[in-house]
Amino acid sequence: MKTEEIKELVARARAARKNAYAPYSHYAVGAAVLAESGRVYAGCNVENAVYPSGLCAERVAIFKAVSEGERALRALVVVTTNLGSPCGACRQVFSEFAADDALIVLASARGNRRKRFTLKDILPDRFGVRHLKRRPRAER
User: Fold this and answer.
1) Phi and psi (nearest 5°) for 126?
2) CA distance 12 to 120
3) Euclidean distance between CA atoms 140 and 131, whole angstroms
4) What gap in Å lies between CA 42 and CA 15, rounded to an integer?
5) Any idea what DSSP says for residue 19?
6) What is the count of structural domains for the chain?
7) Alpha helices per DSSP H over 1-140
8) What is the domain-level CATH number for residue 92?
9) Of 9, 4, 60, 69, which Cα lies nearest the Cα of 34?
10) In terms of Cα–Cα distance, which of 43, 1, 42 is closest to 21?
11) Could you tell me which of 31, 8, 35, 10 has the C-alpha nearest to residue 19?
């Protein structure tokens, strides 16, 4: 992936982070996903007083992409103050729509630090649709 494409994704995630609703954790997160179509979808974390009802920025961005018809994602960028990594649920949701070599970039809010991974790096031996295929009756 080109450096300019990554910079654009970081900028979109940084802009989304400004809309984060994080009155409880005070941990604002912005995310952006790049679809195979070339379109970018951004999201921010949205908290709720009933904590499990909130949603991570990564899943907001992914669900926006999927709700617009995207089914293949190439990259995910997450912007936090301290290079926070996607939670397990976000990794699993991303894996539903991304290949093992999909890029994940963690970027600091100020833009001076970055880490790069592939999906396989942060979610090896992932669970997926291949595990749900029906087996012949004799194997059950």
Assistant:
1) -70, 150
2) 24
3) 13
4) 9
5) T
6) 1
7) 3-17, 57-67, 88-97, 119-122
8) 3.40.140.10
9) 9
10) 43
11) 31
Options 5, 8, 36, 58, the catalytic residue:
58
Q: Is 36 a residue of the active site?
A: no
Q: Quick check: 1 and 33 in contact, CB under 8 A? A: no
DSSP state of 100: E
According to DSSP, residue 94 is labeled H
Angle at 104 between CA 101 and CA 105, to 5 degrees: 140
User: Which pLDDT score is estimated for 14?
Assistant: 97
Chain centroid to CA 64: 11
Distance between CA 130 and CA 6 in Å, rounded?
Answer: 30
Is-above-0.90 flag for pTM?
yes
Distance CA 109, CA 91 (A): 21
Q: Which two tokens stand for residue 55?
A: 């949603």
- Coil, helix or strand for 50? coil
Residue 78 lies in domain: 3-139
74-92 pLDDT, tens digit per residue, is: 999 999 999 999 999 999 9
